[in-house]
Amino acid sequence: MALGQRYPKLAFLSRFNPMAMSKELADAVSTTLGNETDPTTRVYGAAVEILKQKLGDEFLARKVRKAIPHDPFLLNKGGEQSEEEQRLHIQRVSSLADALYKLEGQKGFDALCNRLTRKRAIDPAYADAEVAKLIARRGYDVEIKAETGQRGKDFDMVVRKNGAPDLNVEVTSSDAKTFRPGTVKNILQSKRSQVPKGEPAGLFVLFPISWFNGQPNLLKELEKVTNDFFRGSSRYNFVCFIWHPVEVRGNTFIHGTMRMPLKNKRAACQYEDLSFFDAPTERKEEWDRVRAGEPVTPEPEKNFDFMVDYNEAAKAKVVASTTGS
Fold first, then answer.
1. CA distances, 5 to each of 14, 49, 55, 231 (Å)
2. pLDDT tens-digit profile of 127-179?
3. Which residues of 267-279 are buried (b: 16+ CB within 10 A; e: fewer)?
4. Which secondary structure element, helix H or strand E, spans residue 301, and what is its range?
5. Cβ atoms of residues 157 and 143 within 8 Å
6. HEC states along 144-194?
7. CB 3.0-4.6 Å disulfide test: which of 38, 65, 178, 214 passes with 2?
């Protein structure tokens, strides 16, 4: 059964800033997809081909294709997946491919690939890729830093734009299923000296959607804990929380990326250009429509940079063959 037949209305994240796909990659994706017409299957197939080219066959064997033991984050259980696990597997594989497609050419891209392919839990490196993609899509340059193991120098990336001062960025994630203020406090405190003194810095914290269970005031709680952290720390200009809500309507699954940036008024080094927080939340219009009970037409092939660019390349190839040029 095609993935899109099982999930006929599966939708993904929105896209920004298209880029041209190389002929080599476009030809490889074309070979992989063949005559496949199901949109979700096409997106997933193209994503797997991108991961193969960027991370290699060994990565696919351990993290994407069915494996025993399976990866607990990418959930590559094959036919033994539940519907929710298959949905998460598709979304995470496709989003990771989209991040690598977007970030190739940025400084430190090889360092990011090394983090993803090493035989450790993939969650931290996946979070790095997600945040780097979010920032790069807003037109910033991102340099992925190699690990140093030295406190104050061992952060994940540097953000640059228009001659502004470098912004050091640390990324972390939590796999705790339940929210507790102490968990967040410990996360923030553990990153307190991760970045250098005397330089602007930001911290991104990704947490699971399950934190909202039984926590109607979760965002206020996060804000309170973070403001308490800011009172004792001036290194970070902001802390940004990121989570991925899912709306289910029968067989319709809508994935989103939400964020809540909290700025530190006591930051020692001011950094004025934080415009990557000013862009609208990804797929906000679709989310508003879903929550209002309106139907949402999924267009997965329009929601990933790599798929849009592949379709444009394929269309150009057809035009060229038709005109004989």
1. 22, 21, 29, 52
2. 999 999 999 988 889 999 988 777 777 899 999 987 788 999 999 999 899 99
3. bebebeebebeee
4. none
5. yes
6. ECCCCCCCCCCCCEEEECCCCCCEEEEEEECCCCCCCHHHHHHHHHHCCCC
7. 38
